[in-house]
């Protein structure tokens, strides 16, 4: 079959699914329409099914000669719509609760996107597939960005309906999906051009408060960022009391994580926690088990746990450490130091100086035995290691040596012309001098404490993203500004593609929903005009503001929400 015939057949098949003949249905208000009335829109069909009229609509479609298999994508879409309608209520600082039908049939009160995704359970199995797609979307955004899941659902809802309109116009599903994927790549580039660096404590505080709704946690995180210029070396701990407090100390972090998940002391939080840790830092040497044992034996009398950092860790050494951890004999964790030889060696030397130890290399311990081995060990009051990073609190390095090392790095920066090389040295300097912080989180009950720790984790993730990727105007204005920038930057052919039509139809939806939830009613035209110049409507103060005034969203969170919404829409299109 020729390519033209294949495309025509695909268009006919899609039209059969969604360009229905006149039939009796139930409109979005629950009132009947009569046979031979003008065709109702596909969005209305989807909303009708979302209201629970699945059997009726399916029967009427079948009576019109449409196979039940062809009805399936519409019912899946209705599950997406039904779940999204609940999530939309929870968006923003003036969010409302949603009443959701749970798996056992009773109504439940939920407060956020995760709650809706967890408990919403439509009766129709095909609708549950659509609701499950929303659940996966919420989980994906929560994992990648810790915030923005409700925004992602609002965007996905609008994109799915816009994609259905594209299909009803005869565009094949595969072409819509491909065009949408191309458009979002360009949209991410434009978002990066709009974003501005986080420059003030107030801006970061506002971003964290938007995510957490906790003023005290927002204040503490913003203060750490102002003091250290980085949020990498920050730990969260339970406080025995009801208060939250901040403790600043010497320390550092580095982006290397556990060599094995079996070292974790807390699987729930994905961490290995070592108190009063002894650091053994090895470079350019692959010790055998027998060569490493003298070091380990030095720690037995002190009962100090070992944090081994090395560029290569033999399997037998790794296995020995894991077995002893699992048997409770000897607490330890191992971290592999990746990277190019020169960069790795410099970073290992930074860690050794910060912790008061020495880097061990082949032959460096020749003729050294017993107590003399102690000089190689660095020290940290606490080491917390995850799959991707290590944080050291209360490091034992001498201040004069740390200062001298920092000066060496600054001198090297002055001699370099490459901005990339200078950026790497700035990162090393920040890790060496930034120190560390412990946020002690308390509450009146265990449940309240756990909730606040979860909010603090979200706040840290969002603030790190904001510091890394910059800020966008808040209140959904960043996405509306993206729409304005796209219309002025792209040529007519690009803007007229199915992908960009879908994106442009969805980008204003979060701002519109935020205003609806808050009871404020600026016109969409007014919002778009203000957004085009970087202004957003402050839903708390009820006035327009900008990033400099602290009305901001993390660019990375917004980008993650938009990209995940596109992926969800493509997942729906793949069902057709």
Largest β-sheet summary: 7 strands, mixed
Relevant CATH superfamily of the domain at 252-397: GroEL
Total DSSP helices: 22
How many β-strands, per DSSP?
A: 16
Q: What's the CATH C level of the domain at 252-397?
A: Alpha Beta
Share of β-strand residues: 5-15%
Give me the CATH fold name of the domain at 252-397.
GroEL
Low-confidence stretches: 1-40
User: What is the helix content?
Assistant: 40-55%
Q: What is the architecture of the domain at 252-397 at the second tier of CATH?
A: 3-Layer(bba) Sandwich
Class from helix and strand fractions = alpha/beta
Radius of gyration: 28 Å
Q: Report how far apart the termini are.
A: 21 Å
Shape by Cα distribution = globular
Mean pLDDT: 82
Key attributes of the depicted protein:
single chain; 576 residues; alpha/beta; GROEL, domain 1; GroEL; 7-stranded mixed β-sheet; 3-stranded mixed β-sheet; globular; disordered N terminus
Structure description:
The chain has 576 residues and is an alpha/beta fold. 54% of the residues lie in helices and 13% in strands. The protein is built from 22 helices and 16 strands. Strands 5, 6, 7, 8, 9, 10 and 11 form a 7-stranded mixed sheet that branches. It has a 3-stranded mixed sheet with strand order 3-12-4. Strands 1-2 form a two-stranded antiparallel sheet. Helix 11 links the parallel strand 6 and strand 7. Helix 8 packs antiparallel against helix 22 and helix 10 crosses helix 16. It is globular and about 80 Å long.
């Amino acid at each position: 079959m020729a390519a033209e015939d294949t495309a025509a057949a695909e268009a006919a098949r899609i039209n059969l699914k969604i360009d229905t003949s006149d039939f009796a249905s139930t409109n979005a208000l629950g009132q009947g329409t009569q046979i031979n009335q003008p065709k109702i829109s596909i969005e209305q069909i989807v909303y009708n099914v979302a209201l629970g009229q699945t059997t009726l609509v399916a029967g009427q479609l079948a009576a019109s000669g449409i196979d039940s298999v062809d009805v399936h994508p519409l019912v899946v879409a209705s599950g997406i719509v039904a779940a999204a309608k609940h999530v939309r209520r929870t968006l923003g600082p003036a969010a409302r609760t949603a009443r959701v039908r749970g798996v056992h049939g009773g109504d439940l009160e939920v407060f956020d996107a995760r709650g809706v995704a967890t408990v919403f359970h439509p009766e129709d199995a095909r609708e549950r597939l659509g609701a499950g797609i929303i659940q996966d979307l919420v989980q994906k955004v929560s994992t990648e960005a810790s915030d923005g899941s409700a925004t992602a659902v609002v965007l996905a809802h609008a994109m799915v309906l816009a994609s259905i309109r594209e299909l009803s116009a005869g565009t094949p599903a595969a072409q819509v999906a491909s065009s949408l994927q191309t458009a979002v790549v360009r949209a991410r580039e434009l978002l990066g051009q709009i974003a501005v660096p986080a420059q003030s404590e107030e801006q970061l505080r506002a971003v964290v408060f938007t995510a957490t709704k906790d003023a005290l946690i927002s204040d503490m995180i913003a203060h750490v960022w102002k003091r250290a210029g980085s949020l990498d070396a920050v730990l969260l701990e339970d406080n025995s009391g009801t208060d939250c407090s901040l403790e600043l100390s010497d320390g550092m972090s580095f982006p290397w994580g556990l060599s094995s998940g079996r070292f974790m002391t807390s699987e729930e939080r994905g961490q290995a926690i070592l108190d009063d840790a002894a650091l053994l830092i090895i470079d350019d040497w692959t010790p055998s088990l027998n060569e490493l044992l003298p070091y380990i034996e030095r720690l037995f009398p002190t009962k100090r746990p070992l944090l081994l950092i090395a560029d290569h860790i033999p399997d037998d050494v790794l296995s020995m450490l894991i077995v002893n951890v699992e048997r409770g004999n000897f607490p330890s964790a191992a971290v592999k130091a990746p990277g190019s030889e020169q960069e790795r060696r410099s970073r290992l030397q930074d860690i050794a100086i910060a912790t008061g130890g020495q880097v061990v290399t082949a032959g460096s311990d020749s003729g050294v035995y017993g107590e003399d081995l102690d000089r190689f060990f660095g020290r940290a009051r606490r080491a917390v290691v995850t799959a991707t990073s290590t944080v050291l609190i209360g490091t034992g390095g001498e201040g004069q040596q740390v200062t001298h090392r920092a000066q060496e790095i600054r001198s090297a920066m002055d001699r370099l012309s490459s901005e990339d090389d200078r950026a790497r040295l700035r990162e090393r300097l920040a890790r060496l001098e930034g120190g560390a912080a412990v946020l002690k989180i308390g509450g009146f009950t265990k449940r309240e404490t756990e909730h606040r720790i979860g909010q603090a984790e979200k706040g840290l993730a969002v603030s790190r993203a904001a510091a890394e990727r910059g800020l966008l105007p808040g209140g959904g204005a960043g996405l509306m500004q993206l729409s304005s920038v796209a219309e002025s930057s792209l040529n007519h052919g690009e803007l007229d593609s199915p992908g960009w039509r879908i994106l442009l139809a969805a980008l204003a939806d979060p701002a519109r929903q935020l205003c609806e939830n808050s009871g404020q009613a600026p016109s969409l035209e007014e919002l778009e005009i203000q957004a085009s110049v970087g202004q957003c409507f402050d839903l708390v103060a009820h006035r327009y503001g900008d990033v400099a005034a602290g009305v901001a969203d993390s660019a990375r969170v917004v980008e993650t929400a938009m990209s995940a919404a596109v992926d969800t829409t493509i997942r729906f299109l793949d069902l057709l």
